[in-house]
Design goal:
CATH class: Alpha Beta
Shape: elongated
Largest sheet: 4 strands, antiparallel
Helix content: 25-40%
CATH superfamily: minor pseudopilin epsh domain
Radius of gyration: 23 Å
Order of helices and strands: HEEEEEEEE
Distance between the termini: 68 Å
CATH architecture: 3-Layer(bab) Sandwich
CATH topology: minor pseudopilin epsh fold
Structural class: alpha+beta
Number of strands: 8
Strand order of the largest sheet: 3-2-1-5
Strand content: 15-25%
Number of domains: 1
Length: about 180
């Protein structure tokens, strides 16, 4: 008579092998995860800046991305209300993104030593270089930007990405710090 099933020894060997594989995989996964979160947050910022640009063109009106560094978030706004994008209560907020959704990601330049502009140089104190109005990227109805700048994001491992508009044409770029340059 044939019996189907596993012996106790076969089950124990299987569990030991699974334990060894898990012990090897978990440290590698925990080193990989912060970089994945940073890249994901940077890609979402890039996509949301594209959303603001396309919304401005579609609605034939200015749209903006307002970077609220104090609250560790940014907002996509379709109407400045009183003409002041930084007065958040007067804006039509289309979307809000909190960096707390990306554990370990925040405004920052990590281990980067120069900013992403053509000449390099120092970083702004809040890691957002959109100057006028403060920390706001404004897209016009033609898909162009009123102001140039970059936003720097980093994780707790010192890695960093930047997303920004280097020309008035409204081109949006995403770059990663490689250890020596932005690429």
């Amino acid at each position: 008579m044939k019996k189907n099933g596993f012996t106790l020894i076969e089950l124990l060997v299987t569990f030991v092998i699974l334990g060894i594989v898990t012990a090897i995989a978990v440290p590698g996964f925990s080193r990989w995860l912060p970089g994945y979160r940073l890249k994901s947050a940077s890609r979402e910022l890039y996509a949301n800046m594209q959303l603001a640009k396309m919304g401005a063109v579609r609605n034939n009106a200015d749209w903006a991305v307002v970077f609220d560094t104090g609250a560790s978030r940014y907002l996509i706004c379709s109407d400045a209300g009183d003409g002041n994008w930084t007065t958040l209560g007067d804006n039509s907020i289309e979307k809000t993104v909190n960096f707390s959704d990306y554990e370990g990601v925040n405004y920052g330049h990590g281990n980067a030593t120069t900013n992403a502009t053509q000449g390099g140089g120092a970083f702004t104190a809040d890691n957002v270089s959109y100057a006028s109005p403060d920390n706001v990227a404004i897209f016009t109805s033609r898909g162009m930007v009123n102001n140039l700048g970059y936003v720097y994001l980093s994780n707790n491992q010192g890695s960093s990405y930047t997303v920004g508009t280097p020309t008035v044409a409204g081109v949006i770029l995403m770059k990663k710090w490689t250890g020596t340059a932005w690429e």
